Amino acid sequence: MKSYVIIGGGIAGVSAVEGIRSVDGEAKITLVSSEKTCAYSRPLISYYLEGKAKLDTMGYRESDFFEKNGVTVLRGVSAERLEPESGSVVLSDGQKLSYDALCVAAGSSPFVPPFSGLDTVEKKFSFMTIDDALSLEKELGADKRVLIIGAGLIGLKCAEGIRDRVKSVTVADLAPHALSSILTPESAEIVERHLEKSGIELLLGDTADSFDGNSAYMRSGRTVEFDILVLAVGVRANTALVKAVGGEVNRGILINGKMETSIPGVFSAGDCAEFKSGVLAILPAAHIGGFTAGVNMAGGSECYADPVKMNSIGLFGLHIMTAGLYEGDALGDPDRRFFVKDGYLSGFILIGGVEKAGIYTSLMRDKTPLDTIDFDAVMRSPSLLPFGREYRKEKLGGAV
Amino acid sequence: MKRVYVNEKWCLACHLCEYNCAFANSGLSDMAKLRGVKISPRIRVEGDERISYAVSCRHCTDPQCVKSCITGALSVADGAVRIDRSRCVGCLTCVLACPYGCVAPGADGLATKCELCLNNSAGAPACVAGCPNGAIVYEERG
C-alpha cells in the first residue's frame, strides 16, 4: 500500500486528499497541520468577525471529511525537515514519516517589517488564521481605535470585519493607492472613496516609521494614536522546507504543471507554490493545484499549467472583481476596465456592476481571439449573444 | 443525467420561465404574490429584438464555480451543481468563475443558481413545465 504525506491543512492540503482519493481509495494518507484547527476556509475569518460566518460552519468540507477519506491528521505539529533520499519527513515532535509522494501545502506567513519600537506595542495582531481572528476579537470594543498597516486584501477585509465593533479604523499603506496588487490607481480611487464613505480612515502613501506604546509615528510626520495594531503588510510563501534540501525556489516553491517541485516525489500547491506566472495565492488556485498534485502523487495524470489570476472581493457592499494582467490597450472606464493585448483579453477590472463577470474570465481561460466575437457588445453587457448561434447551440443544447 | 436544454428557435422571449423559476423557489402559495416584487430568477432570457433564448446553469461536468468556491458551499451531488446557502458568504467568486453567467447574487446578496428544482416543491424544473412553446426541455442528452 502506498503512503502519502501532506504538509498543511489548508485548502491545498484538503484538496490534495481529494485528488489522491480520486485515484487511490486505499493508500495511507497522513496530513500534518501546524494549526490545531484545520480544513477551514481561511478567508472567512473576516466574515466571522463581521458576524456573517459561524465557527461551526467555517469548514471548507464536511466535518467528517478526514474520517470519511481515511486520513490520519496530526494537529499542532509541523514539518521540520525533508529527507528526500530516504523519502521521509521529520516532524517537530520528533517522529519521522516515510512517503511515496509528499505534498508541501505549507501556505504563507505574514511578513512583518522590522519597525522600530514594535516590541513596545502591547496589542498587535496578524490576520491570517482563525487563531489570529479569535485573539483580535477578544480586544475589540466600542472604545477601541484600530490601526491597520496594509491596505491590501487582508487589511481591508479585516477593516470591514471589525468596523462596527470598534470606535475607529485607520488603514495605512506605503503604496499611494488601496488594493495596489489588484487595481490600477484610477480604479482604486473609486474604492477609496467608498471606503472613506463607509467610515474607514485611509492614510495612503504613508506608513509607520516607528512605534512607542499606543503611538505610531508615521513617515509623513503625523502621529496616530491607537489601541489595537493589525499588521497586514504582506505575506511570504513558506519555502524553507524545500529550499533547505536544495529544491528550486524563487518567491515560492517552483512547480511545473503537474505541481511537481524540482525534488523527485515532492509536490507543492497553494500559497507556497510558484507557477510560471508567479505566486498566485488565490483560493481557487489552491484548490485546483492541490487536487492536481494529489492526482499526480497517486499516479494519475492531471495538469494545471496556466491558471488565470482572479479575485472577487466585496467591501462594505461594493463588489470588486479583477482578473489577469493589466497589459495592452486599456478600454472602457475605471469601474469597467478591459485590457486587450495582441487580440486577446489580458485582464479586466469591474467595480460595482459584476453580473456575469465569468463570461469575461472565460475569454481569458479559453484564450478566445476577440475578433471571433462581437467584443464591443460583450464589453458593454456580458451575455452569450455575441458568441453566435453555434456556440450557444453547443453550450446550451448539449452537456458541457 | 437530465439537464435543462434550450432551443432558441422556439423562444418567444415571454419571460414566463423567469417567473415560474422565481415562484418555484419563493415558497409562496400563489404566483400573483410576486406582483411588484423584484425577482431573482435562476434562469434568464437573453437576446435582442431578433434572437432570444433562456440561460440557466449547465450543471457542467467540470464546474468552475465549484472549484472556485471559497467556502465549500457549492458542490456536485449526483451530477447536479448544488448550493448550500447557509455556507455562502456572498463573495461572488462563483460569479467571476462561471463561463455562462449562470450564478448571480439573490436579493440577500448570497449566490443563487439553478438546482433543477430538485429541492423545492416543484420537484422538476418549473421553467420547463411552464414554457408555452417547448423552447426549454428537461432531458437526457449525454
Describe this entry's structure for a reader:
The complex is a heterodimer of chains A (400) and B (142). Chain A is of the alpha/beta class. Chain A folds into 3 domains: 3-109 and 236-297, FAD/NAD(P)-binding domain; 118-231, FAD/NAD(P)-binding domain (3-Layer(bba) Sandwich), CATH 3.50.50; 317-397, Enolase-like, domain 1, CATH 3.30.390. In chain A, 25% of the residues lie in helices and 28% in strands. Chain A has 11 helices and 25 strands. In chain A, strands 3-2-1-7-19 form a 5-stranded parallel beta sheet. Chain A is globular. Chain B is α+β, with helices and mostly antiparallel strands. Chain B folds into 2 domains: 1-56 and 124-142, 2-Layer Sandwich (Alpha-Beta Plaits), CATH 3.30.70.20; 60-113, Alpha-Beta Plaits (2-Layer Sandwich). Helices cover 16% and strands 21% of the residues of chain B. Chain B has 4 helices and 8 strands. Chain B has helices at residues 16-24, 64-68, 93-97, 126-129, and strands at residues 2-6, 44-47, 52-55, 74-77, 80-83, 104-105, 111-112, 136-140. A two-stranded antiparallel sheet of chain B has the order 1-8. The model of chain B has no long low-confidence stretch (mean pLDDT 94). The A-B interface holds A 41, 43-44, 47, 52-53, 57-61, 283-284, 287-288, 291, 310-314, 319, 321, 323, 354-359, 361-362, 365-366, 382-385, 389, 392-393, 395-400 and B 1, 3, 5-8, 46-48, 51, 53, 55, 58, 60-61, 64-65, 67-68, 70-72, 86-87, 89-101, 103-104, 141-142.
